[in-house]
Amino acid sequence: MTESFEFPGEYYEIIRRDFRNLAAETDFFASYLPNGGRVLDLGCGTGTNLRALHQLGHTCIGVDQSRSFIDYAKNAGGEIEYVHGRAVDFETSEKFDLIYTVFVTLNYLRRDEVGPLLAKVRTWLRPGGRFVVDIGHMLNFVDSYQPYIIAHHKHDGVLITRLIRHMVNAHEANWRHEETLIVRQRDDQVSMYDNFFDQMALTAPELRNLLQCAGLEVVEEFGSFRKDPPARQGKGHLIFVAVHADG
Q1: How confident is the model at residue 169 (pLDDT cuts 50, 70, 90)?
Q2: Number of domains in the chain
């Protein structure tokens, strides 16, 4: 799998506003944390979730392979530790009350990388700790497939136009997302960025099995960060909350 998110973090923050609900995400994560809890975000992007949790008094570490996003996060404030690198390469001797990998970050990995990462996650959880994973499952890809998309995002004088192309390799269950970002900045200057990523199309049973093999037990499943139940027809978000299988 490949991934490239090397464009300014400010622009990702604008795009993110149109897809994510920070208040709902913060409430969701905070519900699994004790006072002064320790949090690990695998695929933290520009650190948006961690900043919100840090403001609630939690100690936070974020890992992301985008240098641009990590640089933005480090400059965005808060005493938060950020690590530039792939989640599968991250190592630590620390223990956490909450570990999460959301916004389909797990789908960016190769299939043979997921099991070893989940095994490490299990060793990083404190007793009673929770692991939250939000995946793009098979029907998400099938239902949302469009070969070409034009999307616009606007905030505080910045206009971002995304020209998107999707390609699916069914033999490898791989989804390729390519896009060009055209940005009209506040001073009317225009810049352009290339962005692409590959994602593997997991199924929910496949992820449950991977979690079980890693010694993690799914104890809750949701269809949104508002803790709605998963959609009966299998569409939309699928969020698993897992714990040590041995308690």
Answers
A1: confident
A2: 2
